[in-house]
Amino acid sequence: MNLNSLLLLFFIGALRVSVFGQEVSVQKDSVLIQDLDEVIVTATRTVRQLSSVPLPVTLISKKQLQKTGVIRLDEILNEQTGIITVADQSGFNGIQIQGISSDYVMILIDGVPLVGRSSGNFDLSRLAVGNIKQIEIVKGPSSSLYGSEALGGVVNIITETPKDASLAGDLSYRFASFNTHDANIHIKQKLNKLGYSFFANTLQSDGYDLRPDVQGQTVNPFENYTFNGQLFYDFSDQLKMFVSGRYYTENQDAVLTVSDQLIEGDSDINETNAHIRFDHQITSKWQLQYEFYYTNYKALEELQNTVSNTLFSQNDYNQNLFRPEIRATYAIKSKSAITVGVGYNHENLDRTFFDDKVIFDSQYGYAQYDFYPWKKLNLILGARFDNHSEYQSQFSPKASFNFKLNDAIALKGSVGTGFKAPDFRQLYFDFTNAAVGYTVLGYNVAIDKVKELEAQGQLSDILFDFEDLETPLQAESSVGYNIGAGYAQGKVKLNLNLFRNDFKNLIDTRAIARKTNGQNVFSYANFDRIYTTGLEVDANYKLSDKVTISGGYQLLYAKDKEKKVALERDEVFARDPKTLQAVILENSDYFGLVNRSRHTANFKIFYEVSKWNFNTNLRINYRTKYGLFDGNGNGIIDDYDTTFVDGYALANLTLNKTFSDKYTLQIGANNLFDYQDEENIPGLAGIQLFTKINFNF
Amino acid sequence: MKMTAKFLTLLFIATAFISCGDDDNEPVLEAVESKTASNIPAPQTGGQGQPVGGPFTKFSFETGAVTTSDTEWDIAFRGTTIAINGGVVTGTDDEPVRNGNAGASIASGTFASITEASGLTFIQDADGAYAIATGSDNGWYNYNPQVNQIAPISGKVLVIRTHDDKYAKVEVLSYYKDAPAQPDADSESRFYTFNYVYNPNEEQTSLE
After folding, report:
1. Which of A11, A619, A649, B29 counts the most CB atoms within 10 A of its CB?
2. What does the CA dihedral A147, A150, A151, A154 come to, rounded to 10 degrees?
């Protein structure tokens, strides 16, 4: 501690000198060092300098997390260019990248995937940000490295590793609107060969109610806890071990009214992750990584009818994933490397609406060649092969390049394929809606279940040939193209990227039989072909030592190709609101897929006064109008629909003041201008004020 | 649309002139009628898991009005169900007896674009199945659970052969009282408003 205090004094002294002496060069150097420090691992599975990566990537640093005062992953991702979070009916905040929805975005922690989705949507508000070193987002398909689900992109959360021999850490408490409490503890230490870290977080809130006139709250009270312990042990300079255990638990009240009867209960989520990795440096050129990963995700919901005192519904969901993987990297020259990996994936799911527990097994292997055919040109060629027990094998190649035109400008481009395996629900679901009476069946059980329903006399008509369902459901797949340029010179950083993603075999429901009650039996099928295309621009300008401004913009077109064909053939109609008669729609009337805004933009300003140990930032995110659902029954969002959500901007403001270098007081407001749309965006609370005290040791 | 309408009107007038100028021996055809029926009530009992029942509201294209006749009716409404006077009862409670030769066909297009009944396949009500299929997206309507509303599927035209072998086409405009452009939670349902064109000449299939 003595040494620390000395260093601290020295540091403060140096700072004073630089402030009074107006030594700008020191500042410049630190900026430079910081830039060199920006490395990411997600794009290639090797450590790469951010600017040299040939793919569109976004890097969110710990500094940004701290300065903005966000507490959950969805909040910070929503502020990045080309990324928005979209809430589904159950209020789950999923992510949309390049217009591609959450179902097709893979979420990793330290390189291993998280499971537990609700109808495909991954709820990012489940993830606390307290022990994160950085968040890496690679846009576009990355199935060549990561396999299924990595079509739209990969979000990789990198946790902090201990570096100092002295005990270091943070202790913080945050109080916010809606009686929301968030507390964190994070400690880390690196002794000689042994390193460890521990992180715990709790978040509790009373929730909020945007519509007091309607019974029940918009968001019900909840509390959750996150624990993450990590152990690092160096057996030798050649063999190093990393062990991580994570546990998350959430409890939320559930209240609804059905036919004027109050239904009450709660929903629980429990998630466990266990991750062991050995890094083995065999020779100076050969490096091996052995990885074992296990995760379990459990969601339980039990509702009681308070009037009749009977069980209203019970919904269980229990998913396991076990995945060993071995990776080898061979460094050919200083910068060129070959990476190969093989792995085995065992997944099972037991849930309500499934007859039995279902099991997926797959084996995979991948290879990547990262090289410089010419010193200014970097090429990365890669491919992955997935062999699966329940669907066809997948081959996913990818090629990308980075051409360094000069010191300031680099050109980038990539072509890659992505796929998403049919999920458990799409194959094994057996669900009948009690209130309305329709039925949804998984593809693999549809024939048997339809025969059963027919034998019971519940069907009036079968709309398909049984033979049609004998060929297995195909994986959804995409080809993604990205081409762009980066410019970095002095105070200016610019990035431009054009993207196009072509999806085929998208899985959706269709009616396969009619029931005698007039409702349909639905099952899944491959039929949609969609595309998302557009461009994104990111700009960052360091106005002075105190002020940095940045802005981002995305233009997006996301449409269904089949619908475009139908529109060309004059087969799509809408109702004229005046005459109520049908009119033929043209392609120009077609707005696009649900939840896609044509334009999204952000603007941020960071202001720092070192001599006062004070900094503040204002971030504004804007999106133009988007369609919420097809309101006029013609299968598309069109100009005649009245189901558009108006464009809106959200502003977030945070102020930080550090005392004695150890204590940081933070105050701020999310949704500063109190934007609300209680009918269309129930997940958006009004203005939330917060204050936080952080003790850093 | 306006141009098309004008053109069709001109065409109609021209055709009318030509037919007038024809040989006097030809039987004179009655003019095709184009009308709107508003707020035809279609009450029903049961539903939501209970057996559906209650009398259908019967409609005659010839009179252009609701009728209580047991024989002189063409189509009938109960809730979202449309029955026709042809075939046999489907088997639900309180259905009218079918004693005519009505048939139904669902054509795709704007109302104006459906000009001929010939070439279409007409089906009749049968045991267990209405000619105009029930259920969302199966027949004439779409049910939107997000707003809990019934909307006629735009671009679907019901072409009806009447109980006495004449032809008509129907475009349902609304299922709500007074046909609001945008029904809301307070809109009263089970009131049909529809445009129809009726050709009163037996076996004449023209619908314009």
Report:
1. A619
2. -150
Contact criterion met (CB below 8 Å) for B74 and B168: yes
Token digits for B166?
């004449």
Closest CA of chain B from A97, distance in Å:
26
Nearby residues of A334 by Cβ (< 8 Å), 6 or more positions away: none
DSSP character string of B108-132: ES-TTT--B-TTPPPB-BBTTB-SS
Interchain proximity B128–A516, CB inside 8 Å: yes
Nearest-angstrom CA–CA distance, A587 and A568: 7
Q: Please tell me which of the candidates A572, A574, A581 has its beta carbon nearest to residue B171.
A: A581
Nearest by Cα to A43 from A177, A183, A156 = A156
Buried b (16+ CB within 10 A) or exposed e, A43-75: bbbbebebbbbbbbbbbbeeebbbbbbbbbbbb
pLDDT tens per residue across span A599-639: 999 999 999 999 999 999 999 999 999 998 888 888 899 99
Is residue B50 within 8 angstroms of chain A, CB to CB? no
Span A454-497, pLDDT tens digits = 999 888 788 888 887 888 888 999 999 999 999 999 899 999 99
Pairs across A and B, CB distance < 8 A: 73
B49 touches chain A (CB under 8 A): yes
Tokens 């729609």 belong to which residue? A585
The answer to whether the CB atoms of A518 and B193 lie below 8 A apart is: no
pLDDT in tens, B94-127: 999 999 999 999 999 999 999 999 999 999 999 9
Q: Say if CB A598 and CB A556 are below 8 A apart.
A: yes
Q: Which residues contact A683 (CB under 8 A, 6 or more apart)?
A: A87, A91, A93, A219
d(CA A431, CA A438): 8
On average, the pLDDT of chain B sits at 86
Token readout for A88 is 């589904």
- B32 neighbors B207 (Cβ within 8 angstroms): yes
Q: Which of A628, A617, A618, A620 is nearest to A601 (CA)?
A: A620
Cα separation, A87 vs A102, whole angstroms: 10
A508 forms beta bridges with A525
Residue B186 buriedness (CB in 10 A; 0-12 / 13-18 / 19+)? exposed
Mutate which of A514, A575, A576, A679 to test chain B, going by most B C-beta atoms within 10 A?
A575
Report the Cα–Cα distance between both ends of chain A, in Å, rounded.
10
Mean pLDDT of B123-152: 88
Task: Report the candidate in A332, A404, A419 with the shortest Cα–Cα distance to residue A368.
Answer: A332
Crossing angle for the helix pair A2-21 and A24-37, to the nearest 10 degrees: 120
Q: Does A519 touch chain B (CB under 8 A)?
A: yes
- d(Cα B107, Cα B116) in Å, to the nearest integer? 10
Residue A522: which of A438, A423, A633 has the closest Cα? A438
B135 contact residues in A (CB cutoff 8 A) = 514, 518-520
A589: tokens are 């009337």
Q: Does ipTM top 0.85?
A: no
**Is the Cβ–Cβ distance between A501 and A532 less than 8 Å?**
yes
- B93-98 contacts: CB < 8 A, separation 24 or more? B93/B46, B93/B51, B93/B52, B93/B53, B93/B54, B94/B53, B94/B54, B94/B55, B94/B56, B95/B56, B96/B55, B96/B56, B96/B58, B96/B70, B97/B70, B98/B124, B98/B125
Q: What are the two backbone dihedrals, phi and then psi, of residue A15, each rounded to the nearest 5 degrees?
A: -60, -45
Nearest to A582 among B110, B142, B147 (CB): B110
A79 or A16, which is more confident? A79
Residue type, A257: T
Cα A296 from Cα A317, distance rounded (Å): 10
Distance CA(B134)–CA(B140), nearest Å, equals 8
CA distance A126 to A270: 11
